[in-house]
Each structure stands twice: as C-alpha cells, then as structure tokens.
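ok here's the first one, seq then struct tokens
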Amino acid sequence: MCFNRHKWFSWACSILFFISTAFYLILGVTFRKEEKRKLHAIMTKNSSPSPSPKDIRDVNVQQNQAKV
C-alpha cells in the first residue's frame, strides 16, 4: 500500500495490518473445533427427512384490488 504521504505512515499501516492478520489467524485456530461442532449440530438438525403431516402449514395469499 502506498499512501503517497509519509513513508512512516505506510510502514505503520503495514505493521498494523500484519498484526491484525496474525490476531485473526490465532482466533481462527483457537475456536476452530468449537465452530466446527456448532456447524455439525446445525447441519444434522436441518437435514431431517420430509416434514410430517402435522407440520403442514396453510397459507392464504390475497392480492390487493387496484382502484380505478
């Protein structure tokens, strides 16, 4: 990145971006197992077979009449 202002400003931004990248990588590695477990729980819950007869929902769709 080049901001064309001050060389120290470009270096400071580069260092901050590097630090934030390292921080997010550490967070990702730390919480990977927990997030994987949550995703597995969601996927198994939503992959249930077709809905049973008691889950049928009645929907009444009406259209507004245009005024002339």
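and now the second one, same deal
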Amino acid sequence: MSWQTLSLHFKQQYDGAYRYLDRCGEFMLAAVDKMDFLPGDTKPTGAKLEIPERGLSATVDTFELVAVQEMPGADHEFFLKTCLGLVELVNEQFQPRRVIRNGFACKSYWPITNADTVLATSLTFGGNAHAELGK
C-alpha cells in the first residue's frame, strides 16, 4: 500500500477585486461555457461552482478564489488546468489590483484494511516522538 490523494486544494487571495459585484454573472457564465462548471449559489458575498462528476468545487468572492477536488485519483493535471483557467477568469472579469497569496495543498491517506494493522502502523509515524513524550 502507499499514500493516495484524498483531496487537492488551491487558494488565491487578492486585493481590489471590487468588480466582482458587477461581473460575477459574467465570471459564472464563462466558467459554465468554457470549463463545464455547473452554477451553484450566487450571492453578493460569493458564488459557488462545481463539476460534480470530477468532485471539483470552486468559490469566488471579492477577496479570494478557492478550488477543491475530492478523490482526484492519479490525474492531477485536470485540477491544475482548471485552477489556471479560474485564475484567468478572475483576472479578466474582476481585475484585482494585486495577488496577495497563491497556495496549493494536498491531503493524502493510506488505505489499511484492518484495525490491528492501523494501530501498529500509527505507532511508526513521526519517528520516536511518542516514546519521548511518554517519558
């Protein structure tokens, strides 16, 4: 067994994207037409989009763009291309003054079939920290 990807995460925080209030509908239409997203909630405080068959969801507002893909399998290329496409739409539609932060994260899991193996394996993670803490 080996580590498998549970979820992929992307977050971009920006400043001065006040055009969100005027251009959110245009952003959503472009995401639906160009990237096969399905529209979710649209509110003045933020909009949600998703591609359910890929386990991908995205939210956008005046401060940040967040994308998450659950159980992506081995194909991480799709997630990266989608994030780049969403960032391009944010730049085109909202024209933020500057990007403050970009970040990717990955959550992984190690599938184990029985409880005894899980307990034994959990003692080997992190070296001997648990033994030192016990002293």
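notes on #2: The longest helix spans residues 77-94. The helical segments are 20-35, 77-94, 115-122, 129-134.
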